[in-house]
Design goal:
Mean pLDDT: 91
Radius of gyration: 19 Å
Structural class: mainly alpha
Helix content: over 70%
Strand content: under 5%
Largest sheet: none
Order of helices and strands: HHHHHHH
Shape: elongated
Number of strands: 0
Low-confidence stretches: 1-9
Length: 210
């Protein structure tokens, strides 16, 4: 099947769509980071995040349509769908986290800001690796490096979450406030988890192709 796939003409625009999709995810991550870093108002950052999320949704629709219309794809159709879904879930969760942040109106902590930086760093690694999916066998080492970097960012975010929660529960604020802030921490950390999900899907694609 792999030989048959390699000999048949393929829709190479799948890779281009993944590149555009990941660019939108990075744009959303930048807006998300700016929100938690206080570089602009929460409302302005959320609006920017929504703009990138809308653009990512459009790429997802294009990809799903192309899956059904293409005779031969660069790799398995289910993997294409999994990767598109994982990318979309990442920016969707940023939007959901931003929406909750607007509602809760909590003060951002240094740990939250650093966790958002971890998410941005992970999305940039993913974006930079996307063009390599067009020639996987020649880029196994670089794709493996991306996976390690994303997992390192996720591990750092876990440590920041632990430190932030320790500081939170050692404080004297009300139980209600602590619960609200804990929810925000969990949302921010989940964004980085979704980046690791993207890296896991790419790892599965690489394994299937080499």
């Amino acid at each position: 099947m792999r030989l048959f796939r390699s000999l048949m003409p393929q829709d190479e625009r799948f890779i281009e769509r993944f590149c555009r999709h990941s660019e939108n995810v990075v744009g959303g991550a930048m807006a998300f980071r700016d929100m938690l870093a206080g570089k602009a108002s929460v409302e302005a950052c959320y609006a920017e995040l929504c703009r990138f999320e809308d653009a990512a949704d459009e790429v997802t629709r294009e990809t799903v349509t192309a899956i059904h219309r293409s005779f031969v794809t660069p790799f398995d159709r289910s993997q294409i769908l999994d990767l598109s879904t994982a990318l979309d879930d990442t920016i969707d969760l940023m939007k959901e986290a931003g929406r909750r942040i607007r509602r809760y109106d909590v003060a951002f902590t240094p740990q939250m800001r650093d966790m958002a930086e971890c998410a941005l760093r992970a999305t940039i690694e993913i974006r930079d690796a996307m063009p390599l999916l067009g020639a996987i066998q020649s880029n196994v080492s670089r794709l493996s490096q991306m996976q390690r970097q994303v997992r390192a960012a996720e591990s750092e975010a876990d440590d920041l979450l632990d430190a932030g929660l320790r500081a939170l529960f050692e404080g004297t604020s009300s139980a209600g406030h602590k619960l609200t802030v804990e929810k925000v921490y969990d949302l921010v950390e989940s964004v980085v988890d979704r980046c690791e999900d993207v890296a896991d899907v790419i790892e599965g694609i690489v394994i299937e192709q080499v």
